[in-house]
Amino acid sequence: MRFVPEGTFWMGDNKNLSDEQPLHLVSVSPFYMDVYEVHIWHWDKVSNWATENGYEFSIASKDLRKEGPFWYKDNSLLVFPMNMISWYDAIKWCNARSELEGRTPVYYLDSNFSAVYRNGDVDLNASNVKWNATGYRLPTEVEWEYAARDGLYSKLYPWGNFLNGSLSNYYNNGDPFDNSASPVGYFNGYQRIIEAANSFQGEDYKATDQKSNFGIHDLGGNVSEWCWDWYYDEWYSQSAASSVDNRGPSTDFLSPINSGRGVKMTRVVRGGNFRSKPDAEYGNEVRTAYRNFFTPESTQRRVGLRCVRGDNDNDPLWHTAAKISFPNWYYLKWLGYYWQSRFVWVFHTEFGWVYPTGHGSYDNWIFFPKHGWMWTNSYVYPNFYSDKDSAWYQYDTENYEYGWFIKSSSGEKKRIGRVYPN
User: Fold this and answer.
1) What pLDDT score does 220 carry?
2) Does the pLDDT value for residue 153 go beyond 80?
3) Is 119 helix (H, G, I), strand (E, B) or coil?
4) What pLDDT shows up at residue 419?
5) DSSP assignment of 233-272, as one string?
6) What is the pLDDT at residue 169?
């Protein structure tokens, strides 16, 4: 993820479509945003864990998604953006990613934040969202546009004010994946472009890395991305649209308006995609200000997601550990059993005495007396990074003796952990 600092910017566009007007000033608090759109491999890693822990996702997300083309050999076919996911799928996946990493989930079924949203299609409202939690969530429409503009109004696109096929994956831009998604971050300075209907001489330009000034890729194409907000075409004319960190129209505000119009409630989708047309008659769908929307149950091959999280990592260390029947003993699902002393030190059944510090299960430094400090978390375990020799180690879970680690670079085995009788 990349840090997006707080700021104030002009949102919208007075020169184009009516739902982008009027231009209005909005202030945004700092947050973190994924560098890339969530790719299929990452989705699977989280969703596989999630389905074993009470989560449910739509059939389309499993059976109808499109992976990379058979001819692509540069990397895995699973580094293409996840697609065919509903808004409900995206929200639940954010929660699952949070829980897998030991962060506090953001979305709940109740306003007391006691029932984590894990299954079903539920139209959550702002009272169901724990905005100050450390977990992952969808960006608000304001956050998305602020990040895409790098905080600046003057840019028509995330990269500037001109368009050619070497800059983004849009309709007939000339990349090898034309009219389909490209690998996340494909426009990294090594993209290949040929002459095409909408390449606009991009094949003649030297390829350059298209990450934003904030260090984020693909905000101007590839797949569009779900946002939190309900869509309302006249939202920008409301005074609340200029409030700090506004999260779009509330359900109570918008539902009677849409009912009177005879239209369904829809969620905002932002960013161009491989089907986005740069033609003026379509509103130039690649522009940063362009707004799109779908019903929350919709699944599209041109729509995926990108996560954000707040600028806070304040979860207590291993706060999800469960107490067991013996005094001061705990069980942490990914790490195992340990005994907590009064002085921070813990006795782990396989590592012996260690000194842990950090937050949740996502930023854990553990001091091993025989070796020194090592970093791990629930996502990378049983892998550890050693501060002593700047190397990665894997805990040898298959060794009948406790405490053995294997150095990833050399295969060398070291007994860093427990040396007591097993």
Assistant:
1) 93
2) no
3) coil
4) 77
5) TTGGGSGGGGSTT-----HHHHHHHHHHHT----EEEES-
6) 97
Q: What is the pLDDT of residue 421?
A: 58
| Spatial separation of the C-alpha atoms in residues 273 and 285, rounded to whole Å | 8
Q: Which residue matches tokens 């998305």?
A: 144
Q: How far is 89 from 84, CA to CA, in rounded Å?
A: 9
Separation between Cα atoms, residue 31 and residue 3, nearest integer Å? 6
Q: DSSP labels for 264-327?
A: ---EEEES--TT----GGGT-TTSTT-EEEE-TT---TTEE---EEES---PPTTTTPEE-SST
Torsion of CA 148, 152, 153, 157, to 10 degrees: -40
130: its two tokens: 């724990």
| pLDDT tens figures, 168-217 | 999 999 999 978 999 999 999 999 999 999 999 999 999 999 999 999 99
Which residue, among 222, 223, 249, has the nearest Cα to 238 in the 3D structure? 249
Buried b (16+ CB within 10 A) or exposed e, 376-405: bbbbebebbebeeeeebbebbeeeeebbbb
Do residues 372 and 389 touch, judged by C-beta distance below 8 A? no
The residues pairing with 101 across neighbouring beta strands, listed in sequence order, are none
Distance CA 68, CA 60 (A): 17
Per DSSP bridges, beta strands 404-407 and 224-230 are unpaired
Bridge partner residues of 395 (DSSP): 405
pLDDT of residue 420: 66
Distances from the Cα of 282 to the Cαs of 15, 191, 239, 291, in angstroms? 14, 26, 28, 12
How far is Cα 170 from Cα 180, in angstroms, rounded to an integer?
9
Q: What mean pLDDT, rounded, does the chain reach?
A: 95
H helices, E strands: number in the chain: 5, 20
> Is residue 300 predicted with pLDDT exceeding 90?
yes
* List of long-range contacts for 53-57, beta carbons under 8 Å, 24+ apart: 53/96, 53/99, 54/118, 54/119, 55/92, 55/95, 55/96, 55/118, 55/119, 56/92, 56/118, 56/119, 56/120, 57/85, 57/89, 57/92, 57/93
Residues 28 and 158: their CA atoms lie apart, in Å, by 18
Other CB atoms within 10 Å distance of the CB of residue 281:
6
Beta bridge partners of 344: none
Average pLDDT on 230-253 reads 97
Bridge partners of 10, per DSSP, are: 25
Q: What residues have CB less than 8 Å from 196, skipping those under 6 apart? A: 165, 172, 173, 174, 178
User: Closest Cα to residue 43, out of 85, 1, 76, 73?
Assistant: 85
